[in-house]
TrEMBL record:
Native species: Christiangramia oceanisediminis
SUPFAM superfamilies according to UniProt: Ferritin-like
Domain DUF2383: 8-116
InterPro entries named among the record's database cross-references: CHP02284, DUF2383, Ferritin-like, Ferritin-like_SF, UCP029477
Protein name in the entry: PA2169 family four-helix-bundle protein
Gene3D superfamilies hit by this protein: 1.20.1260.10
Length: 148
């Protein structure tokens, strides 16, 4: 596997996770009742869409092709979100719990790639900026969860 294949592979994994997060946030915006939560989830979906475009550019910089679609694990997570929300009396709180769980996982995934020694500094800067955005969203969703 060439250097560019390896880096692009790691970035494609993050790209797929961002596709998944975008879809999950869109679903969450549909599930919640509170307008502030709808707004929050819609903004997070847009943010992840934007992250995806940044990652696509980085992948193309390595002469590779960005992946399309979403992961099976994320499809299962969205199904779990659906089931949990439909069974819960407090749908907003259930969706917030799932958002916290998803964002914690995203931070871990970004840190794993950021800590790879092969990642170029310019790419690492993009990833750190995105991870910081996810951490900010995680803190915000935790605050919203405390309010629920």
């Amino acid at each position: 596997m060439s250097y560019s294949d390896k880096i692009a592979g790691k970035l494609n994994e993050l790209l797929e996770k961002n596709y998944d997060a975008e879809k999950g946030y869109k679903l969450a915006a549909e599930k919640v009742k509170r307008e502030d939560l709808k707004r929050f989830f819609t903004q997070r979906a847009q943010e992840r869409y934007d992250f995806g475009h940044e990652l696509k550019s980085e992948i193309k910089n390595f002469g590779e092709t960005p992946d399309k679609g979403s992961s099976l694990a994320a499809d299962a997570h969205r199904s779990w979100m659906n089931l949990k929300a439909s069974l819960s009396n407090d749908k907003d709180e259930s969706v917030l719990e799932e958002a916290v769980r998803g964002e914690k996982k995203a931070v871990e995934e970004y840190e794993d790639v950021i800590n790879e020694s092969e990642i170029p500094v310019s790419t690492k800067q993009v990833l750190v900026k995105q991870k910081n955005g996810i951490v900010a969203a995680l803190n915000e969703v935790k605050a919203l969860e405390d309010q629920a």
